[in-house]
Amino acid sequence: MQSDFSKGRIWKNIINQAIPLMIAQLIQILYNVVDRIYIGHLPVIGGNALTGIGLVFPITTLIAAFTNLFSTGGVPLFSMARGAKDEKKAENILGQVVSLLLITSVIIMVLCYVFKKPVLFLFGASNETYVYANEYLKIYLLGTVFSMISTGLNGFINAQGYPRKGMLTVLLGAIINLILDPIFIYGFHMGVQGAAIATVISQACSFIWVINFFYGKDTLYRIKHDNLRLNVKSVLSITSLGISGFVMQGTNCLVQIVCNKMLFMYGGDMYVGIMTVINSIREILSVPGSTLGSGAQPVLGYNYGAKEYERVRKAIRFTAAIAFVYMLIAWLAVIIFPKQILSIFTTDSSMIKAGENALKIYFFGFFFMAFQFVGQSTFTALGCAKRAVFFSIFRKVIIVVPLTILLPMAGLGVEGVFIAEPISNAVGGLASFTTMYFTLYKKLPE
Question: What is the 3-state secondary structure (H, E, C) of 306-353?
Fold first, then answer.
């Protein structure tokens, strides 16, 4: 695999990074989505159990947010150090991220155990759905360390020019999860708890694979004891750049909490379950668009560090064009086949009927997200942390959250919750991309 991104065709470098990353992230999503599919098809309790899993979303998103804080902050710095041929700095960044992921994962796990009951009711649980949410969460939290380290370090594997090995990290865990899910859920009759056990075991396997890579012979950079000792300057550099990734996931957590509360108030448990399904569909369909941006980041960062500015511009143009075309096709698929897509997750006819309209509304104008992905990934890759953070906050906190609260109160009911998303996609996506184009793309030296 070519690891010098200043050579070769720029589009090929991006695709070589993006495709294995895309497969890896799609497989990563299977950790949770497969759980939801199996749980949604449980007889009698499927609807409430699926809603219970949806209530855990904000916590799993919070774990992903802290993972992103250190991973998306460390990987661009790692790539730029490699481009500048500063091998010692690159290895130090890797070690700092390992320590940050380990310490944070333990803190999150402990806090979530202590406060899980009041938190789940805050997120919109009812007495019926709390039972299933609690059963899943108390086991899922045991895999926090495994999840954060394996996911957080995968970006460093990709940035070395080994995206296929990064893909195998997730593939290993996902295959184990796919095998164990039906065994624990149906074979051992453990239901929701079985799904959580299967997930934790699969995450542990991915963790072992990642650690083995960084202590093996293939890696160009090793995890060394001296680099694990946290340095204030390095931590600040990593977190300041990674804050955009953290804010993107953190604001997702906030939106999920607000959506669940409003849907419970105006529609009840069933609509919280519908949003669980819609979020699952969005996660899957967003992956190719987001991974194009993520795959372009090490290429952009490397070429920027090597002062190959025309290659940076070509990379931005290519990523924007491909992402837009894909997101447009994905949107059309949802509009044409809503019932078939929903049926993958549940056999509840009332949930499918109500979910069809909600799905069409939520995904309207989905293609605008391509602009958000490209703008965000470019800002992050080239070290423009403040702008990346602003547009993360702008789309979710300034647009989605107020609309999610106000539109249902204005008489739109549950539909108002779903309408907030397409409005934010259009306004936030165009604002992010336009700003990136005029303040960064046009300002790059010849």
Answer: CCCHHHHHHHHHHHHHHHHHHHHHHHHHHHHCHHHHHHCCCCCHHHHH
For residue 113, give both structure tokens.
Answer: 């155990």
The pair of structure tokens assigned to 204 is 């542990």
Whats the size of the chain, residue-wise?
Answer: 446
* Cα angle, residue 361 at apex, residues 360 and 365 outer, rounded to 5°: 90
Q: pLDDT 10s digit of each residue in the chain, 446 long?
A: 456 777 888 888 888 888 877 877 787 777 678 888 888 888 767 678 888 888 998 999 899 999 999 998 999 899 888 888 888 999 999 999 999 999 999 999 999 999 999 999 988 888 888 999 999 999 999 999 999 999 999 889 988 888 778 778 878 888 898 899 999 998 898 989 999 999 999 999 999 999 999 988 888 888 888 899 999 999 999 998 888 778 778 888 899 999 999 999 999 989 999 998 998 899 899 999 988 988 888 888 888 888 888 989 999 999 999 999 999 999 999 999 999 999 998 888 888 999 999 999 999 989 999 999 999 889 888 878 678 778 888 988 899 999 999 999 999 999 999 999 999 999 999 999 999 999 888 888 87
The Cα 201–Cα 193 span in angstroms is 13
SS3 content of the chain, % helix, strand, coil (to 5): 85, 0, 15
What whole-number distance in Å separates Cα of residue 141 and Cα of residue 33? 17
| Contact yes or no for 304/83 (Cβ under 8 A) | yes
Q: Which of 35, 37, 80 is nearest to 60 (CA)?
A: 35
Sign of the four-CA dihedral 396, 402, 407, 413: positive
- For tokens 């030296």, name the residue: 445
Token pair for 363: 């995904």
Residue 242 structure tokens: 């990674």
Q: Write down the pTM of the prediction.
A: 0.78
Residue with the two structure tokens 């403040």: 386
**How far is the C-alpha of 250 from the C-alpha of 278, rounded, in Å?**
19
Give the H or E element holding residue 349. helix 349-362
Q: How buried is 186 (Cβ within 10 angstroms: 0-12 exposed, 13-18 middle, 19+ buried)?
A: middle
Q: Tell me which residue of 237, 150, 153, 159 sits closest to 200, measured CA to CA.
A: 150
By the 8 A CB rule, do 142 and 159 touch?
no
Distance CA 284, CA 79 (A): 27
| Tokens read off for 278 | 């819609």
